[in-house]
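Input/output pair, single chain:
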Amino acid sequence: MKNREVFEVITQIGQAAPCPVTERLVKAGYQQKDGYIDYAREKNIPVDYRRALPSQYWHVIESYCRRSDPNGMFRRSIVCGELILYLAEVLHCVPERELNALVDQIIASGVPVRRRNGSMLPPVEYERLRWNTEIHDRCYIPICQAVEQRYSHLHPTDIPA
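Output:
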C-alpha cells in the first residue's frame, strides 16, 4: 500500500468522519509527545489531548502523507498507535467492539503521574511501545486490505498487472 493510496482514500472519507473510539483514547491522554505533536506546534495547530487535538485526520493527511513520498510504502514501521487506530476506525475494517475493547484495556493500564501545575501533559502515562504494537498487530493488515480495496474502486485502471 502506497502513501498516495492512503491519502486518496482518507481524503475521500473526509475529516468529518466520526472517530469516537480514537478520540476517547486520545482524550484519556494517549497522545504522542513529539513527532506529529511537534509538527503541529510548528504549524500553529492547537495541541490539547483533552479535546483530541490535533485531529487524527490532520495527523495522517497533513503530518504524515503530505510530508512523505507519495509513491513510498505506508509501512508497518509507522509507530503511532493513535494514527493506526484512527485508520482502522474510519475504514471500518476492524469491528468497533474490538476497537472499544482494546481502548478499554489501554486506558485501564494507564499509570497516574504527578505533573506540575500548568502542565499540558496528561496526568497519566502508558506503555506506548506495548500498546502501539498491540494496535498494529490487530489493525495493520485489515487497514492495508481496506485501503487497497477502496483505492481499486477509485482507480479501477490503476491496478498493477
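The chain has seven helices and two strands. Residues 3-154 form one domain.
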